[in-house]
Fold these 2 entries.
Entry 1:
Amino acid sequence: MENLINCSDRLLWIVDTTGKIANVRGKNEDSIGYSEKELIGKNIIKLFPVEEQHKLFNYFKSHSNNTSYLFESNLISKESILISCKINLSTIKIHNDDYFLFCIRENKLERILYYDLINRIHDNTIDDLILGIMHEINNPNNFLMLNIPYLQNIFQFLLPIVDEYYKKNPENKLCGFDWNYIRDELNVLMGDINMGINRIKRITSSLTDFLVDETSMDEINLLDVINSTSEDLKENLKSEKINLYKNYDKLKRIKIRGNSKSLKSAISNIIHNSIESFENSVLEKCISIQTKLHPGSQSSITTITDTGCGIPSESIFKIFNPFYTTKRDKNQVGLGLYIAKYIIKKHGGQIFIESEPDKWTKITVKLPYLTACKGE
Amino acid sequence: MKKILVVDDELCTMRALYRILKLEGFEISASSSVDEGIATIEMLNNTCDQLDLIIADIQMPGKTGMDLLLKVKEFYPGLPVIIITGYGSPQIERIFRETGCVDFIYKPFSPEELITSIKKVFNNN
C-alpha cells in the first residue's frame, strides 16, 4: 500500500462511501491546485464536471469488491481549470470499512479552461454565430423591456399635471398636435413599442431551437415525441376546431437517436404551420399524422397532412427559407419550417413538402431509426 | 431590508435594474465585473453586512458569471445566485443550474419576471 501511495506521477485519493475524501497522497497542489488539507473532507463529486459525474455514479452503483474501473475524465482544479486524467477506481478495505481508491494520472497536454466549456459546447460556427447574435440583440432589447414600464409609470404620473396645463393654455400645441390627440396617442405609441420589443424577443427565442443539444442525444421513442407534441397542442387544436388523426401502422415503438426537446420543437412547428393553413376555412379542418417504416433504408416516414388552404406552386420552394412568411401581419416571423428542417437534418433526416392549392399540404419527415416494434 | 448585489458590465442594464429593485424596496450593491463583485462580497462579509442574493450576467470582460458562481458555491454556499443572460441556450442554462444557480433568466425579461424570481428565492429561503 505504501509503495503504491508513493508513486510520484499519480495522485491517490481515498474516498469514503459518502463521497468524502478521507486521505490523499501525491503532488496534489502542483496538479489540481488544492492542498492536502483542502482536499480532505471535500466531496469528490464536486471535483468532476457535471457532464462526467455519471461515470462515478455508474461505478458507485454497480461496484463489487476487487473490481477496478479504468476511465478517462476531466477534473476541475482550484483555478477552475479542466484537467484531463486517466483514473483507476477500485474498492479497498481499511480497518474493515469500505473505501474507494482513486488513482489519478494527469494527461498534462490536455488542460483547457473550464469556462471554455461553454464555448466548446457550441463548437461549430453556426451555433457560435446564433449565440453571438442573440446576445447582441437580447441585451439592448432588455434595456427597452425594463425601461418602458418605468416610462409608462412616469407618463401616468405626469398626465394630470399636463392636463391641468393645457386646460389653461389650450392654444399651445405639443409636437404640432393638440394635447388631447397626443394624450390618446401615448397609449398607442407605448403599445407599438411593446409589440416591437416582443417581436424581437420572439425572433431571438426561436433561434434557440437551432441549438440542438448534441451532447444529450439519447435513444428515444419517436412515437412518444409525436404524442407528447400533439398533447401539448391539444387546446390549440380544440379552440380552432381542428380534428387530429394519428395512425402509426400498428407500431408501438420506433427507437431513434435524438434529442426529444428539439424534435418536439420541429414537429410542433410543422403542426403549427398546418393550423395556420385553416385560416378563414369553412370546410372540415383535419390534420392527420401517419408514421410507418421503410425498412429498406432503415428509415421512419412521418407525414403530417392538413386539409388547409395549400401553398401556391410559385411559393412552395420558398417555404423552408428563413423569415419567409405570408402572415407578417399576424406577427409571424417565418422561422418555423426553417427551424424544423434544420433540426431534422441535425438528426440525419430529411424533410419534404407537397401541396395542392386550396386542398391540402403534406409534409414528410424521414428519420433513421435504430429499432422498431409492432404491438396491439 | 434584503441586500442584493448586481454584477453586470452593461451600464444601461445596471441602471434599469437599480431602479426596479429600489422601487421594490431592496438595498442594492452594483459591480461591473466579476472581480469587483467578489471583492464586494468579501468586503460585506467581513463587515457582517451580508448579502441576501446575487444577480449576475454571464458574459463580462475578464471573468465570467461561471467564475463568480463557482466562487460563491465554494465560499458562500448559502448565498443564492440568479443568472441573467442574453445567451439563451438551454445547454448553458443546464450547466449553470447544475452548478448551483437558483434561477436562470433569459434576456430580455420584464421587471415582473425578475421580481417574481427574486420573491420565489426569498420565500424558499
Entry 2:
Amino acid sequence: MTLNMGPQHPSTHGVLRVALELDGENVVACKPIIGYLHTGMEKQAEYKTYTQSIPQTDRMDYLAPLSNNLALCLSAEKLLGIRVPERVQAIRVLLTELTRISAHCVWLGTHAIDIGALTVFWYCFREREKVLSIYDMVCGARMTASYFRVGGLAMDIPDGFLARCEKFVDEMPKHVNEYEALLTKNPIWIARTRDVAPLSAADAVAWGVTGPSLRGSGVNWDLRKRDPYSGYETYDFDVPVGSRGDAYDRFQVRVAEMRQSTRIAKQAIRRIREMGEKGEYRLRDFKYVLPPKEEVKTSMEALIHHFKIVAHGFFPPVGEAYVPIEAPKGELGFYFVSDGTARPWRMKIRSPSFVNLQSLPVMVEGKLVADVIAAIGSIDIVLGEIDR
Amino acid sequence: MSLAPHGIEERLRERFPDVPFEHQQGEAVRDFTLYLPAGALVEVCTFLRDDAALAFEMLSWMGGVDYLPRVPRFECVYNLLSLQHASRVTLKVRVSEEQPRVPSVVTVWPTANWHERETYDFYGITFDGHPDLTRILLPEDWVGWPLRKDSPLGYEEVAFTHNTPGRLKPSPALKKLAPKKVRYRAQ
C-alpha cells in the first residue's frame, strides 16, 4: 500500500510530504517530497544587495533567525576581508547561543507532542517566549530579527539587556531539569525513542548529516570547536556526543547542548560587561558599514558614506567565499560568488535541514510506520530552510 | 594532522599525473579551489574520500553557478569536508552550454543525490549516472531553468484590458465581483 503522509500532516513540521510504501505496518520504501515552500531565495538574492538579503534569511530557519543572519554576515565579511570588533563577536555569540536554546526548545516541545507527550510543549514554549522577548528588546522583532549586519550589528544593545539575558541564562538549567524530569526516565518516552530511527556513524557521514543528528550518532564534530568562528575557540564548553545514534541519543545530545549553550552565554555576558555595556557595535570602516547617525549629522564625509552605502551598498572584490557555522540544526553556510558589484553574482545556501532530511529513508526503511513520526521529529527539520 | 591545502594539490598531482588540475587564482578567492575536467571527477573524488592522508569523507554541498556570457558557461562547485583533519577543499568543474553534462558523484557520496537534483532543477545540468534525476524544489511541470542568468526574476503579469488582446469589456466573472449599489437609509 502507498501512504501519502503530508504535506498537511501536523507532525511533518510544515509542508513536508512523505510517500511511504507499506507492507502492513512495515515501511518498505520512503521518499520525502519537498519544495512546497520554495520561494527562490537564491534567485532573489542575485537582485538584492548583500544587506538586503539579511531579512530574507530570517525566513529560512524561522526558529533560529539570528544563526541565519550570522552565517550570511560571516561569509560576506570573509569576502570583504574584514573582521568585526571583539565586542560585536561576543554579542553575536551570546545571541546565537540564546537562539540555539530557543530552537531546541521548539524542537523538544513539538517532537514530544508528535510522540504523545503533550505537557513538555507548554514548558518549552514558556522559555522560548522569553528568548523571543529578548529579541524584541534588542531589535524590535520577535521572530524575524535581522539584527546582525555585515561588519557589526544594526544597533547597540539596549539598557538592561545584559541583566535580562543573565536572568534567563541563570534560570535556564533549572528549566532543562524540568524537561528532563518529564522525559529522560519516562518509560513511554524511552519506549518510543530508544533504538528508534537508528543512524550509524558511517551512514550519517555518507549522507552528509551534520549537527546534533551527527553527534547523536557518535561523531564528535562541532564546527564551533573544529573550525571556530566568532571567537568560539576562546569559550569553554563541551560537545555532547551520543553513542547509539537513535532518536533517544539525539534527544539527549540536544538537551545537553541547551546546558552547554547557557554556559557559553554566561561567558559571553561576562565579556560584554568587561568591554562595556555600551560600546562599539560596528566596524569603523565606512566603506562597508553605515557610519553612526550622530556623525552623519555633523560630518560631510560620514554623510557621503551613509548615502553611498544606502544607495549602492558595498562592493566586494571579485571572488568567492564560504563560511560554515554550527547552526542549531547543523552546518549552515552561504556561498557567495562576487563579480565586483554590490549584488552577489550567486548565493548558494547550504542549509542543514535540506541535507539532514535526506537521511530519513535510511532511518525508517524496514521499520514500523509509527516510528516515521518519531524519526522526522528527531531529525529536527524546518521546511522554510529546506525549500528556501 | 591536517594537510596544508598545497599538500592536497601535490598529492593529487602525484596520483593523477595526466589530469590537468588548475589552481583558481583571484583577488578574493578565499578558499582553496581546484579546477578539474569533468571526465576525471568521479575518480578524483573517490581518491579524495579513500586516501588516508586526505580522508574527505563528507561532501558538504555541491551546486551550480551560471557565468553567462563566459564560455564555458556553467560551473559545478563541490565543497568537500574532512572530519578527521578538519579541512575543506573546493573542486570545480566547467560545464558547457551545449552539453551540460557532468558525471554524478552519488556513488561516492550518497548525499550528492539531492544536491545534484537541485542543480539540475535550477540550471538544467544533467548528471550522468544519477538514480533519480527529477526536479526537487520546483513543480514537476515547470518549464525552464530558473537560476540561469537569462531566466527572468519572474512574475505573473496582471491582466488589464490594455495588455490582454481581445478583451474590451471586463470578463463576466469580473462583473460579478463589481460592487453593488448600496442604498443608505438616510437617502
